[in-house]
Specification:
79% of the residues lie in helices and 0% in strands. By secondary structure, the chain is mainly α. It has one domain. Helix 2 packs antiparallel against helix 13 and helix 6 crosses helix 15. It is globular and about 60 Å long. The mean pLDDT is 90.
Length: 308
């Protein structure tokens, strides 16, 4: 955790690009495999198929037939999150269908603006997924196991995250190279909205120079790089959860082959790798929604005493 924070201070853009290209694909593949064994923490055997279809729609409206609407993709993401509550808590098919339709109608008639796009379309599948949900997953485990080291890691994670906003990094003559800037360009919308959200700029129309050359841009990028890097490393550190030694040899070989192929795509051309892995990266976000909900449910149950 601390090493990730230090590297994020020194080379934020480079650390993010490395983590996303090298650690990211292996994380998607191994976590989806683990979630499949857990039935994705859903009550229905085939609930994951519906979430996969929603993910396919996000991919379709992002690259196959790009939408000009600022609400279509956020609506699909939010719908995936809301029906995940149904998948976690409700087993009766009649109630499931009725509630799913009501949610669909509600989203269709809703009147939303740029704030909705920012929180659901930009933050939810990115920084909320890698930082807030990771923190909740860690807290859930700590409350169950009552581990001192676990409580300490929860606190240190928050301290590391806050440090990027309170510690002014020394002048390192840091400059973003043309290759790094070009490779990161597709992620820059996240930086733009985070700079605005934290009040580091007065407008959401941040120029590229603010993202890549200003102190505000570096503060946000350090936080993003740390959040993503630790999100991946935290998953790989859970050896008791993944149980690498119990993974079938054939599954392990296929996973390693797909991972090497994914990293090769990124090495060939970062944007090509990003587009090729876009569906897989979003798929693991959608399939993790029931787990995220279960984690918060567990936290609430641990904090709020049950009525006798």
């Amino acid at each position: 955790m601390i090493v990730s924070a230090i590297l994020a201070f020194i080379l934020p853009f480079e650390l993010f690009l490395f983590s996303y290209a090298v650690l990211g694909p292996l994380h998607y593949l191994t976590e989806i495999g683990w979630l499949h064994k857990k039935n994705y923490y859903a009550k229905g055997k085939y609930d994951f198929i519906f979430l996969s279809v929603l993910c396919a729609l996000v991919f379709y409206f992002s690259f196959v037939k790009p939408t000009t609407s600022n609400t279509k993709i956020p609506h699909i993401i939010f719908y995936g999150l809301l029906i995940s509550f149904i998948f976690v808590f409700i087993k009766d098919n009649l109630y499931r269908i009725a509630l799913a339709l009501l949610i669909l109608i509600g989203l269709y008639i809703s009147n939303v603006g740029e704030t909705y796009f920012m929180w659901v379309g930009v933050f939810l599948p990115t920084i909320i997924h890698v930082f807030v949900f990771t923190w909740a997953f860690m807290l859930f485990g700590v409350l169950k196991n009552k581990s001192f080291s676990g409580y300490l890691s929860i606190v240190v994670l928050l301290i590391c995250a806050l440090s990027f906003f309170f510690i002014k990094a020394p002048s390192l003559q840091y400059e973003v190279s043309e290759y790094v800037g070009k490779s990161y360009d597709l992620f820059s919308l996240l930086n733009k909205y985070m700079i605005h959200f934290f009040g580091l700029s007065t407008t959401t129309n941040s120029s590229q120079s603010i993202i890549y050359e200003s102190n505000a841009g570096f503060i946000v990028m350090r936080f993003i790089a740390f959040a993503y890097t630790y999100h991946y490393l935290n998953w790989f550190s859970k050896t008791s959860v993944i149980q690498w030694h119990k993974v079938p040899k054939r599954t392990l070989i296929i996973t390693l082959f797909l991972w090497i192929f994914s990293v090769t795509l990124y090495l060939y051309d970062y944007k090509t790798g990003l587009k090729a892995l876009y569906f897989l990266s979003f798929l693991h976000v959608f399939l993790e929604f029931p787990l995220n909900i279960t984690s918060f449910q567990g936290i609430i149950k641990s904090i709020v005493p049950a009525k006798k």
